Amino acid sequence: MQFAALSTVRSRIRLGEPLPFNVRDIDRTLLLARGHRVSSQAQLDALMNRGALVDIAELQTARERAVRAPREQLPQIWNETISQIGRTLAEAKAETFAVALEESVAPALTLVERDPDLAIFQVLSQAASVDTAYGVRRSLHSAITACLVAQRLAWQPGEVERAFKVALTMNLSMLTLQGELARQRMPPTPEQRVALQSHPMRSVQMLQRAGVQDKDWLAAVLQHHEVEDGSGYPSGRTDVCELASLARRADIYTSKLSARSTREALSADAAGRAIFMQDPSHPMTQALVKEFGIYPPGCLVRLGSGEAAIVVQRGPTVTTPVVACFTDAGDRPIAKPYRVSTSEPGRGVVSLLQPGTAFPPASAMAAAMLG
Fold first, then answer.
1. Mean pLDDT of 81-107
2. What is the DSSP string of 91-140?
């Protein structure tokens, strides 16, 4: 390993924010682990004065790591990226938010591009981010969905990135409220209804205070609950921009995949069917349904041979995905899931399992996902 003085990368350390790398003493022993927060200028100065070091290999940006990492590391990088996005959205400090958001979004976009099936897996496999707050998780799932649909629609890279950011930040002002509403069994209170109606404006204000000046981004956040027939809110306008229209559809689709206290999560095919029936002729809806298909990665299925399995890759047709079996034909758990193609005779999908069905260990699923 090669090391550099901590003082040479001082600009990458923000007080109170998670460290992007490990910090080691002059004898190479670990002083502070990646993710630790340096709380004061005095603490930072003390590290510099004692000659603290960093591993040069750890200095690559999160995006560079997502680009260069071996494929078997992608699930772990996804977990780290989700956690970083969660911290960024949950804290949303005006003075650091814009920069932190750019740093969080870059590796996520790279991961989506490197392996779209693994990206869809993040959306469908709810257990993959159970430690992330409900509102944050919903925002990330909407963003991944919007990004994938924008790519299928052949949008330019800059517009794909903007679509991701719009979907990620459109509910910035109501992340906590989303969690509250998901847990409560009673209808929204009058105060909650007011907060729901005003959240597009408040999210725009938060982004503006954070230094976001992209007019298209801000307009889409403001309009993400507007509908072309004028039935949306907050203004009931009919001239809805494409970014907002995409974000709304991504939000509707992913909301159907998330369980709440008052209802179970819908299966992927039911969610796709429900959104398709709302406006089957719209190109964005058609692209979304085609992108995720009937059996997208992350959904649970029963095979004709009896095994329970999780879809890990889209197959040659919409009805023949690649799956990883996690029970045998007698429904007994398998310690090490194994991959099969449902195009094999007798191995076709015969039914979808409830989204709440127990998963095998995450490490086993990650291994199966990567083959």
1. 83
2. H--TTTHHHHHHHHHHHHHHHHHH-HHHHHHHHH-GGGGTTS-HHHHHHH
Query: What is the mean pLDDT of the segment spanning 59-79?
Result: 86
Note the pLDDT of residue 366.
Answer: 60
92: left (phi over 0), alpha (psi -120 to 50) or beta: left
Token output for 7: 């003082």
CA dist 65 and 340 (Å) reads 30
Most confident region among 34-38, 109-113, 334-338 by mean pLDDT: 109-113
Q: Note the CATH number of domain 63-292.
A: 1.10.3210.10
Q: pLDDT at residue 77 above 60?
A: yes
Give the containing element (helix H, strand E) for 288. Answer: helix 283-292
**CA 292 to CA 169: how far, in whole Å?**
22
Collapsed DSSP state (helix, strand, coil) of residue 79: helix
DSSP tally for the chain: helices H, then strands E: 14, 9
Residues facing residue 338 across a β-bridge:
325
Question: pLDDT tens across 154-175, in order?
Answer: 999 999 999 999 999 999 999 9
Kindly tell me the burial class for residue 296, based on how many C-beta atoms sit within 10 Å of its own C-beta (0-12, 13-18, 19 or more).
buried
| Distance separating alpha carbons of residues 364 and 199, to the nearest angstrom | 40
48-66 per-position pLDDT tens digit: 899 999 887 777 778 888 8
Please list, residue by residue across 154-184, b when 16 or more beta carbons sit within 10 angstroms of its beta carbon and e when fewer do: ebeeebbbbbbbbbbbbbbbbbebbbebbee
* d(C-alpha 287, C-alpha 281), whole Å: 10
3-state class (DSSP) for residue 18: strand
Give me the DSSP letters along 215-275: HHHHHHHHHTT--TTS--SSS--S---HHHHHHHHHHHHHHHTS-BTTBPPPPHHHHHHHH
In total, the chain counts a number of residues equal to: 371
d(CA 19, CA 327): 41
Q: For residue 127, what pLDDT is reported?
A: 47
pLDDT at 207: 93
